[in-house]
Amino acid sequence: MFNSELDFLMTLADNRSCLIGILAALAMSLLGCGELEFPEPEPGLPVFRMQGTFGTEEVLVIAGENRQYMDTWATQDDMGIWEFGGKFRPNDCGSCNDQWEFTIRDFQRFDPGDDWEVQASLETGTRRYYRSQTLGNFFRVSFFGDTTGTLDTLDYDWDFGDGAISTEANPVHDYTDSSLLKALVCMEVSGQDGCVSSICNEVDLAKKPCKADFVHLLSDNSSYVAFQSLSKGTWPIQYRWEFGDGFGATLGNPGYTFAQNGIHTVCLSITDGAGCESRICQNISTDPAICSQNFTYKVESLPTPVDSQFQTIILRHMDDSGEWWTSAAVDQSTDAYFKILSVSPYQPNLDGLPTYQVSARFKAMLTNEQETRPFEGTATFAVGWPGD
Question: How do residues 57-73 score in pLDDT, each as one tens digit?
Fold first, then answer.
């Protein structure tokens, strides 16, 4: 640990003119003019460097020296929050020891296709440190439309049952109310050739242990349809078919002759041996010239982030023994901080990913779950960006 701000600053200066400027900045700080500004890199110094202390150990890491390399990435965590990261690590050895990692978490969760700006996500100023917390789950559902009987371009109208709508063919929707275990979803399609079709189904968000499902087979030159249940559940399963014209069946795989050709909405309800119930409806067209529309879906249950997880920082270090230390697994002291001083575009990384150069000052506690050490210093590092 440096004995004073002056000792720390003197390690960054290697000529008298630079030292004079730094001493002047220190004097202004002591007179109550605010926090010291990060000193401008001297001409000829490497672009990426970190200097400070980890416990009682003095640390100086410079990209381009002692096999050190600046690695960058941008990924989304399992809550959909973007993380912009960079780390100093030995060159050509992603699993080698002696790594120093900086991760900046975004200020909100973005859905696929959303636009956002670097200025907001990598904004200068003081950030909190990330601490893992969740409040229940939210459900992300991917919907897939399935149309038969038309080659026309279709217009889609989805109603997700929670007040949200969409006009995409295969939308993705988040149900953020974790107490909502099912939703009635309706979809309608229309085309210029006169195709109009709609279907509503109850979407099981909770992933019940039983699920009703079926397929059908049309016979040649008749309105007879063979149905086969693909339902899942605890045996024995009770079936209740509704053919949309007042008639039904209780067999697992019934056949039925419709009185006239056209679109028929057929529904299957099941009750399994454990009492689990499920229902599904499909549009069945017995006339190949008439369009019909159905949809399938896939549910993902994802943890819901809390506000304290947004616009935060994670610091990590792999020591010489290969053990990871992190700021995310320890409560930070009241004097901990991470201040982003400047952000500017940099060149793409080796994967072609855009990157940004970040300058910062920081103070935090890192833990390996057995021991906690202070980590303090300054750094100029790079982080990846998903794309411009």
Answer: 999 999 988 888 899 99
